[in-house]
């Protein structure tokens, strides 16, 4: 851990904690390293999702009712 690392208390489900400890032992990592990487991946995924929403902000919207009517009009349902 680095000098700038911060401590936090996290309460895991007992089975999840057991799985984390086993994974840590098998991968020669600490539970903290595994959790930090999982959080990094989750935050990166959130950032990608937000970018995708931003890219599509100018797209036209259609109501659910209009979508169903369009599908029916084109023989899709």
From TrEMBL:
Please name the SUPFAM superfamilies in this protein's record.
Answer: Ribbon-helix-helix
User: Known InterPro entries for this protein?
Assistant: Ribbon_hlx_hlx (IPR010985)
GO biological-process terms attached to the record: regulation of DNA-templated transcription
Q: Which domain of life is it from?
A: Bacteria
Name this protein carries in UniProt: CopG family transcriptional regulator
Could you tell me which species this protein originates from?
Answer: Spiribacter salilacus
């Amino acid at each position: 851990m680095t000098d700038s690392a911060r401590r936090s208390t996290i309460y895991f489900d007992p089975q999840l904690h057991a799985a984390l400890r086993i994974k840590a032992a098998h991968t020669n990592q600490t539970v903290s390293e595994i959790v930090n990487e999982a959080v990094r991946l989750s935050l990166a995924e959130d950032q990608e999702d937000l970018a995708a929403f931003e890219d599509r902000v100018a797209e036209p919207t259609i109501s659910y009712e209009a979508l169903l009517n369009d599908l029916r009009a084109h023989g899709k349902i």
